[in-house]
């Protein structure tokens, strides 16, 4: 495998985060904080690395609440880093738990219920004096007093963080006077991100920090004082990294006018610009000329990174082969991967990057889990952007299909499936996106080896089947459902199968092919899906009958007579109906019983087996159910006994069972040994072909006790007694020597 599974530490933290109610207890404390969580194990202690990971995991799963924040008692769970990206429901009440922690780094995004000043008020004295990194991207400096009403913006909290080295206020409504205060008060500031600060009118105050500022991000920053900005950047001699990239597709007229006055060309031509620069991002600055860039590079021999996304500069031959620095652009795979790594939050850039990556992934010959792990968080961060989800699902399909996908670890594939299902759930009417999702999911390895929410997947796929009328969509959808229906619980198959719309659509697919007299892969998958959906689901069987499924299936047996594959699947489903006592009367009719008698003697043992199973269940119906039947129950019983004794054990397992509960009434039908014979033959077949699965199931459901009685009961018919004894022997050989086990 290309990718190793998660570490034990990661898996344990993942479990704790997903099962807080199980591993913790809640008890009342203070009046203003009525309940508090603590671990059931009084000896639990989380050192900083694990504590940070627990907070990160709870946040990633969207599970952070004020109550869950009470887990972070510094005596038990000691934090040094705080990262909150999905904490919409956390208020100041929960954040006060941070006061007694010694926190060095805080990153919050789009904090909706807490202003930046309120966040800082939740820091303890140690944190206020020692915190080195703070990111409040997309957050507000104004307090939401009540719905639709905000307090004036406050910036005083930032000035308290005297030891702050790194500050990210991108995407906020930071005012120019606030930036002045930051530059004046935060004398250790070495890294500043003011990207997308729409209300900044001037950056001249950055000169105050010219001796400390080493990293400055100004992506999409529109300031009208062009010359002032130019002169300010020239004075920042200590800069090692500068980002003056922009979104050139911004529709705002004023932004377009500002773009025409770009400072980048003149800066690149100035020999005094950024003498210590090792990283420069001018992505989107498409008015920059190649000769200006070459002039700059000649004077900066130590450059390590150059951002050229959304410009034609990245196509220059000097950047294509063996260039010593990292470049973002669209010319090569390495440029695109670097772009995805650096610009995951830029929704203007991401669709173009993903589209170009998609074009390249068709030629990838080696697994690229690194690319997958860059795409997934980007898709998750932009879950409502259809262009990103469309391109992302297309990339994921190419990166997980065929021989390349076979080498990707299931741990990575699980994340791929979850993100794909999320996209399908968000955009149910987007035909191409749905098809991308089906292409990814329609993979044996994913469906059989990867752990994911299979019920959710089956429901989304069936919804897709209803919404679109496309042969390839139909084929993939029923293929996926046919496999998943056998892997979800019977309660879940009932939720799906008992929905009339789903049943009607599946039966329509069958009818179309019957009318065309065409057996294709879609028909086979659809029959398998129906078979698995009706398995041990009386409600689904009832809906099948309501939607005239029985009449359709009886016609199928005539149209596709002697097609063993079709006959087996049809009879398998009818066997499920026969297991439901109240529904048996629907099958006891002249037309079907005559067909059934012929199918009993099919040369194909699979067909004969399922026909015999139906007979075994039907003859257990009360005498009243047989009064109007032309065939006597006795004659069918006699035929049943003869056909079972004529079978030879097939080499391969021909049937799979979820449960053996339907067998108990058959095994205890003492006055009908032929019924018992079919049941013990079936149990002998599956236990010898797959003893690991079925021996345990027999014992767990108590069927072994019934078999042991049959094997020793003098009244048992000799053949039944002999076969029951053989099954008991198989149980003993597999370690199940007594009914107690």
Low-confidence sequence ranges: 256-260
Give the count of helical stretches: 37
Amino- and carboxy-terminal Cα gap: 38 Å
Query: What general outline do the C-alpha atoms trace?
Result: elongated
Oligomer kind: single chain
| Percentage of residues in strands | 5-15%
Write a concise synopsis of the structure shown.
This protein is of the alpha/beta class and 741 residues long.
Task: Please outline the helices and strands.
Elements: H1 8-18, H2 20-23, E1 24-27, E2 36-39, H3 48-60, H4 66-69, E3 81-84, H5 92-95, E4 105-108, H6 116-121, H7 125-130, E5 133-135, E6 144-146, E7 149-150, E8 166-168, H8 176-185, E9 191-193, E10 215-217, H9 226-235, E11 241-243, H10 253-260, H11 264-269, E12 279-281, H12 290-298, E13 305-307, E14 326-328, H13 333-342, H14 350-361, H15 369-381, H16 386-400, H17 402-406, H18 410-426, H19 431-441, H20 444-449, H21 454-467, H22 471-484, H23 490-497, H24 500-515, H25 521-534, H26 538-546, H27 549-559, H28 564-578, H29 584-587, H30 590-600, H31 605-618, H32 633-646, H33 663-667, H34 673-689, H35 691-700, H36 703-712, H37 718-733
Helix pairs in contact: 1-3, 13-14, 14-16, 15-16, 15-18, 16-18, 16-19, 18-19, 19-22, 21-22, 22-25, 23-25, 23-26, 24-25, 24-27, 25-28, 27-28, 28-31, 30-31, 31-32, 31-34, 32-34, 34-35, 34-37, 36-37
